[in-house]
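Residues determine shape. We examine one folded chain.
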Amino acid sequence: MFLESTGSQENKFGWIEVICGSMFSGKTEELIRRLKRAQFAKQRVEIFKPSLDVRYNQDKVVSHDANEIMSTPVPAAANIPILADGCEVVGIDEAQFFDDEIVRVCNDLANKGVRVIVAGLDMDFKGNPFGPMPQLMATAEYVTKVHAICTRTGNLAQYSFRKSSNDDIVLLGEVDEYEPLCRAAFYKAMNLDKKQKDSKVVSNILEPDAPANE
């Protein structure tokens, strides 16, 4: 369980909080909740997100439930320290899309006394650790793993299964492209998907496309 720290007047070091999980698990919702609490306490807060994330709004972090908070889109993690100068709390959404520099940036901010709250997918659509998230989780003081509900079994879901055939690691999407699955449902779906792809390959070999009419 995450217990919100009140910090120390004598110790100027900050800390890192990581909120991770699958698609539709409430990561951004929890990030926004913590940031708005800090704003209500009149702390100096700045929120960042990767500039490629324009699904809902170009300048806001928006949850699937339409909860939102103003943010600053940045193309790379290296932009964050300058823009976060003088902040007490820094929020970062969709951290998996940033380069590995985000790990150093977050630790440098925490070492300067900043509370850093990071949200992101811990696994990609293949079930592999996603980008810099493992390193962020390893160096964070607090890690909160949230879960969605499996659309096929009703169990807790920690995987983001991609329903489309696109194999790009980075693919922004919603319910049309992804669904949250538990371990059993995910591996069943992945095995079925592999069989279908293998069958298609064999079919193309045995029945090549007819040559175009000249």
Summary: The first helix runs from residue 27 to 40. The chain has one domain: 15-206. The chain has a mean pLDDT of 85.
